[in-house]
Amino acid sequence: MKQKPNVIIIYADDLGYGDLSCYGAQDIHTPNIDRLAEEGIRFQNAYSTSAVCTPARYSLMTGQYPFRNPDTFILPGNAKCIIDKDTQTLPGVFRQAGYRTGIVGKWHLGLGDGNIDWNGEISCTPNDVGFDESFIFPGTADRVPCVYVRNRRVEGVEKADPIEVSYDTECPFDDIDTYEKNPEKLRMLSSNGHNMSVINGVGRIGYMRGGKAALWRDEDLAEDFLKESLQFIDSSKEEPFFLLYTVHQPHVPRVPNERFAGVTGLGPRGDVIAELDWCVGELISHLEKKGILEDTLILFSSDNGPVLDDGYVDQAVEKNGAHRPAGPLRGGKYSKFDGGARIPFLAFWKGVIHPQVSDALLSQCDLASSFAAMLDVPVEDGAFPDSEDHLDALLGRSMEGRKELMYESESKAKVLRRGKWEYLEPSEGPAIEPHTNIELGNSPEGQLYNMMYDIGQRENVAERYPEVAKEMAVGIEEILESRQTRQ
């Protein structure tokens, strides 16, 4: 086994446990991603730390539960960077081990100090928290600014057309297209929000003026990120590389490249999943052509669970048919139920990892400590407080994972998984989110489920096993009061 393999993490956006054919999808076919499962490990009990994006990505980077940082909510596109420059990070581990490190795709962890100069050098980018190179969009595809940032500067911005960004309630710019003022410019209507700037015919969250030469086209996002990823691989000559490839699919707005439009019959959401699968296939093929596939460990996962209607009228609900994005799980993005944070997770390393299905309980925040162990990089004092070393499980050498893990819903309500038991703490709020129609799991009473027999979380057994429920409620409090859970 090569001691320092190349490592690629492909990190999807809002991809559900049931969205891949290797996880049981019947109406969406993902042959390239399936190859990773068929020739590698398909994990059945892997979790992110949150049912929404920013907190999950923060945990992946820092090896800690999001509750430890009060800024881990869904960030606007002009938010300050929420990772301190002095923090030991996942990419930092690879850099310490002599790797060339890069990120391509969605960032959504903030930039600068909150007063970003989009027309000059940006302080505190991914390059300051462990990456040698970065090519990202700052927030999400539905939030302004709709531009790429390469390392510390917006790609393609012209001095004569400076970028201005605002997240004020009222539009501060008189000379831009907006959802209310220019409905004739729209090719996709809003079902909730997304009613501020109109860019590329799509309503966005936030207002943006200028930067016309720097704007990306939604249809080109997948190919642009793929091209940059392949170029990063090609430019890594002597040293091993670590690539965090944070694809944007199937997050809204779902605008596939023209050649993928209509290929699934499930509307744009199905089409962008097919587009994602193609990207994975192109990446694998490139590694094969370069003769480095056997030297490369590939992990594939998602930041959180799925959602159909997430603010645009894009036929995701109407054309979904019998497809179950969360598979057998209850809930989805935003939710306390498992559909919110139990995610697809695959590990592939040709010739090293043997094909298998694993029930090991894993959290995405474990990657930091696991790779530190693989590369003999010391974990600094206070770093990776909730990240456990489960390298043996990641490489298929053991079926043993965590004893317990915690995740949270969008509303920050906590869930504790311990062995076969899962406990959802009491929380206020609606049972069903009215815009997305997702069951949120909110209840004034604690909920306890036996996940060995009730993967769909249909029978709350808290009254039948009150001592177990009490122990797990105490377990959540102990984690919240702790400085670290890693032993």
Automatic annotation (TrEMBL):
Keywords: Hydrolase. CDD domains: ARS_like. Residues 5-376 form the Sulfatase N-terminal domain. GO terms for molecular function: hydrolase activity. The keyword Hydrolase applies. It holds the Pfam family Sulfatase. Belongs to the sulfatase family. This is Arylsulfatase.
